[in-house]
Amino acid sequence: MNPLLSIPFAIPFDQIEAAHVVPGIRELISRAQAAIDAVIHTPSPRTYENTLLALDHSTEPLDVALSIVRHLETVATTQELREAFNAIQPEASAFYSAIPLNASLWQALKDFAATPEAAALTGIHRRNFTKTMDAFRRAGAELDEAGKKRSEAIDVELAHLTTKYSENVLDSTNAFELYLTEEAQLAGLPPSARAAARQSAEAKGQPGWRFTLQQPSYVAVMTYLDDRAVRESLYRAYATRASSGDHDNRSLTTRILELRQEKAKLLGFANFADLVLVERMAKTGAAARAFLEDLHDKTKPFFAVENEQLAAFAGQPLEAWDIAYWAEKQRVALYDFDEEELRPYFALPQVMEGLFEICRRLFGIVVTEAVGVPVWHDDVKTYVIRDEATGNHLGNFYSDFYPRENKRGGAWMDSFLTGLPRGDGWDPHLGLVCGNLTPPLGGQPALLTHRDVETIFHEFGHLLHHCLTRVPLRSMAGTNVAWDFVELPSQIMENWCWEREALDLFARHFETGSVIPEDLFNKMKRARTFRAANAQMRQLSFGMVDLALHTTYSPETDGDVVAFSRNLLAQFSAAPLPAEHAMINSFTHLFANPVGYAGGYYSYKWAEVLDADAFSRFRVEGVFNSEAGRDFRQQILAKGDSEDPAQLYRNFMGRDPDPQALLQRSGLLH
User: Could you say which of 60, 459, 487, 608 is catalytic?
Assistant: First the structure.
């Protein structure tokens, strides 16, 4: 029996093999097509249940199976799994692309639209009906046959190219390793980073210390290592990932942009950003650009001052591989604060326990570890979420926090199953959180940086959005919201990482159990806005290059995509970018998915405005105020896309967001 054909709540990760992928997904595509055909051939009268609701359910088994295969290819890839995924993805992409292009299905929706029931729809059902009709039109339902064929072909090619792009980034990241054999070369590197590098070398059967482009290793070198030549070597390798040989993404990047622009034009939009943003809070690429430009103008004076001060502190011209190193030394000098001092207080098991306790106090949920659940790697843990008041089972999730060579970089949340109403209750949800954090070393627990802690809280915010949803339609539940709203639940959670009351629940020395000393906490708080303008400009640079590539860029007039992107990014950089800088070739947020954050990277900053403002309510009412927490759960986390996100925000705050909140929190107000 192919385990992909019937997925239980406890997903049998220990049974799923590469050989199951192609036959399993093909069978599920066939079943999904039969379910869609059944919608089309449903006898009159057309109803919401036999048309829209049936359509919403038609692809669910296929959606779940594909999410599992995609996940495994991301966290536990093998050559066999990669080949199977690449083999089936074009077929899956063609199937999904064909749904809104199916003339008979479109007619069925229009037939329902003409019924009295459709005219009388209200609330979430009206919203689902309207959004479905709009989505079909936007996907090409009203194109002629030639247009439909071209749209489908574009989708299939994009699926193939973006998968290849992602694979090239992973392979080129793994291809780099640097061994240092003399301890003197490690000067400046903290003990935790030295131990990790030593363990990495031992795992490869090599002497010395091994450094890679994985985030824990790379960031430690760029921030602390005194040897400038080694820093330069790693920087250049990181900035040119997927830019040479068999892993070169340059042509893929150009072709992906070309296909996206063609699709936008085909569907009647001026550019790809306008196509993807029409359903989001910003609405247009121009509005998103105006938002970023306004933040840029307000940040630029602070940015200039910060960089002048750093150059003066260093007393020498700075290159790109010097910035993090000298900034850390400046921070220590200004605030007597070394972030490494915090590591002993952030043992991963305690961080998780503290996070769960914070969520219990705020949202009324209880999280406990589960045992005996099949997983894809020994590092993975599983948990159960229950409602504290009722004991109801709300959901389960997996956590996978350590880097591996067969796992992509970064941190993310994803969902496997969306619970729906059943009888007098709800089925539980199922999701996961992944990261690439410093693993346990030398018999000690994983000791994290404060930024690592923020990352865990961030991804768990996404998970809460999924697992606390109470929306009876799968396509509108959980994180299926506008992408410039989806980061609000994640980013607001980071605020508790800065509050003494919250930190004291979990930030305890892993050996002594003592809380963070008051002087160290005060140093940490004072240093919070250190080089905030540079941090903001970095995010603005990503948003601006994204919008430029997806609104105005043309190879004919703007030339090579790497050079174009480098020149734009350089305007936001604290130091000159080297001539070979090719970050755009490894920008997976934009190019590892047919859509992803393309045209929408500004969403992080947009949602930062929302989260900075929304957290002000907790500042006033109390960081553990249960009424504010309950309101956030009920008005934001539970609602999914059941209402317009601007209205959901107003429901929680009682007003529209204050755009000054982010600048105030970042110390960027005059």
Answer: 459
